[in-house]
What we know:
about 100 residues
Amino acid sequence: MAATSMVASIQTILAYVAVVGLIFIGLSILTIAERRKASVYLGAGDNDRLLRRIRAHANFAEYVPLALILIAGVAIAGAPPGSSMQVAPSSSPAACCMRQRY
Length: 102
């Protein structure tokens, strides 16, 4: 792989990591805010809204790192630029966690 395409792949991967990091921070803030509002600091209590936020945050933390590793592997292995990154917006890992209104 040429050095310029490797740099482009790494830049694309870092862009994904940055966006995903911001989404993760947003999910964390929503979860913390709901915990404070419900005065529940361990578990979810009987609060269904808090439970949904906790699960969205946890699912994001569990699945997105694997997706990023797979995207990085495909990009670094030499796939043509953009081919590994063409994901429908509604099927991306971030969109899956953000679909429901919290």
